[in-house]
Amino acid sequence: MVGNLSRAPKKLEKVLVVFRRDALKVRKVLAAEGFELVEEKPDFIVCYGGDGTVLFSERKFPGILKLIIKTSRACRMYDYDLNDLSMLLSRIKAGNYQIHTEMKLETQAKGKRLVGLNEIQVHLKLPIYAVRFSFSVDGKEYDDLIGDGVVVATSFGSTGYYKATGGESFEKGIGVSFNNLHNRKVRSFVVPEDSVINLTVTRGPALLLADNNENFIELNAGNSASIRKSGSVANFIYVSRT
User: Fold this and answer.
1) H/E segment holding residue 31
2) 145 and 183 Cβ atoms separated by less than 8 Å
3) Domain co-membership, 85 together with 121
4) Number of folded domains in the chain?
5) What is the pLDDT of residues 164-186, one digit of tens each?
6) Which residues lie below 8 Å from residue 166, measured CB to CB, with a gap of 6+?
7) What is the CATH number of the domain that holds 112?
8) Are residues 85 and 118 in the same domain?
9) What is the rounded CA–CA span in Å between residue 154 and residue 35?
């Protein structure tokens, strides 16, 4: 089982809806179940959309409890369908829910910091120029790598872009998948959660990215970045369907 489960700590009454599609049905069900719709300081958040909506919501409201109502394929045990919402809210109101925590990653470079729930990645800035970089973690060193970059993922993000670049989904640790290396082949691998990854660009330009965050850090030759487990976590509402 990915992440950790703990019991509900308090009664949830105030809710904010984050959505990419029309959320009228969601709002109607929330109101019918007696929840107070707010725009700030919510007890929990309903994320109505796909994984991009969840990532945006966690970035804007870090750490606040989130209930995921998917408009796309459900991937996790705490992903739910809109048809489940009334049942979910009834159980949440009664305190019959648990909190599922997921680790996040953080990266630092050039005096700036980014946090990601899915992944941190270094990616070429210009499609006509590959990135050259060195990479080290837990005593393993990879020098003079040439390619599109590297994806460093959490278990939460291991079914996303990490998997698309050759990684396999995993339940614990930090995943590393090199993106379209030109000069050598390195299989994806997973390191312990307390590992620290260090990377230096030897020829850029490249972008240091966190999830779908439009704020990024540009890396040029000589710039370094570190990637590690964040001190913050994401919290999701889990309600048993039985």
Assistant:
1) helix 24-32
2) yes
3) no
4) 2
5) 988 899 999 999 999 999 888 88
6) 177, 178, 187, 188
7) 2.60.200.30
8) no
9) 33
